[in-house]
Amino acid sequence: MYKQIIRPIFFCFDPEKVHYFTFSLIRNLSKIPGIPSLFRALYVVDDKRLETEVFGLKFKNPVGLAAGMDKDASLYNELSNLGFGFIEIGTITPKGQEGNPKKRIFRLVEDTALINRMGFNNGGVQEAVERLKKNKGVLIGGNIGKNKVTPNENAVDDYLTCFDALYDYVNYFVVNVSSPNTPNLRELQEKEPLKQLLQTLQNQNLTKPKAKPILLKIAPDLTDSQLLDIIDIVKETKIAGVIATNTTLSREGLQSENKVEVGGMSGKPLKNRSTEVIRFLSEKSNKAFPIIGVGGIHSADDAIEKLEAGASLIQLYTGFIYEGPGLIKAINKKILEKL
């Protein structure tokens, strides 16, 4: 029903407006007695064999929602009823910010893709904390970044601020230095500044009552040499793992008119490169750390491909928009078939 009826209607309207409308719709429907149970009956695959333990955390199933969808931690409880094993909120910054000027999301329907240049729009870390206090048992990842006005030399302070504020309310952290939509942010992926940032966060982590897993989210546009640097940095700083990958600046092979838009591209055209990065990191590191695979997952077979390439968990974003919540159920059922 989603692809035949709902999606064609939604795709007649501006993507960002549809996003807020959909969130409002799910929120209001979920207030009706019985509707959350109906969602779970339709989409949740409840099977102990799907439980996955990664970096010390037990996930109900390995299919998560990627950061960027629930930026402000405003709908994670309701979204978990659609079958996700975990929800990653953010990217969160210390202070609220508007993000980049609208229009800033573009559908590439011919390519089954999106381009976005949101620019870390969010209400700030304290607003997110207040919402996370209402968590009803959802496993949460906290994706953190820096404010646009913060210079790179002071970026570590922004990450520390978010880390400390979210520490009691998230199960794992993701350091986002790979979004293409905050000026100069990707410069923090260079070896020395990245190692310094991660080591500082890890040192702070070790002062806490119980250290939380810290992951690094990387761009798909890194060279093999840079990916080898990532492997070295993960080993040196002893962070928990990597999320591969964020959106890409590449426009290779795209057909849609909107391919000229500035921003990060996600969706089907990213699938192969994302899988390549996962396989490279897994093989070259000798599976030394867990990888969360994200990028171009639009079918159960796409998800299995990521897992077989070396991912321990996977996340959806654009595939969730194009395929609907039935995709989560299809992936979990396919995983069970492969056991």
UniProtKB/TrEMBL annotation:
Which keywords are on file for this protein? Cell membrane, Flavoprotein, FMN, Membrane, Oxidoreductase, Pyrimidine biosynthesis
Q: Tell me which EC number(s) this protein carries.
A: 1.3.5.2
Q: Where is the Dihydroorotate dehydrogenase catalytic domain?
A: 50-339
Task: Give the UniProt entry's GO cellular component terms.
Answer: cytoplasm; plasma membrane
Its localization reads: Cell membrane; Membrane
Residues involved in substrate binding: K71, N116, R117, M118, G119, F120, N176, N181, N246, T247
The metabolic or biological pathway listed in the UniProt record of this protein is:
Pyrimidine metabolism; UMP biosynthesis via de novo pathway; orotate from (S)-dihydroorotate (quinone route): step 1/1
Q: What class of enzyme is it?
A: oxidoreductase
Q: Where does FMN bind?
A: A67, G68, M69, D70, K71, T91, N143, N176, K217, T245, G267, G296, Y317, T318
Q: Which GO terms describe its biological process?
A: 'de novo' pyrimidine nucleobase biosynthetic process; 'de novo' UMP biosynthetic process
Q: Catalytic site residues?
A: S179
Subunit structure comment from the entry = Monomer.
- HAMAP family registered for this protein in UniProt: DHO_dh_type2
Specify the protein name: Dihydroorotate dehydrogenase (quinone)
Q: What is the lineage of its organism?
A: Bacteria, Pseudomonadati, Bacteroidota, Flavobacteriia, Flavobacteriales
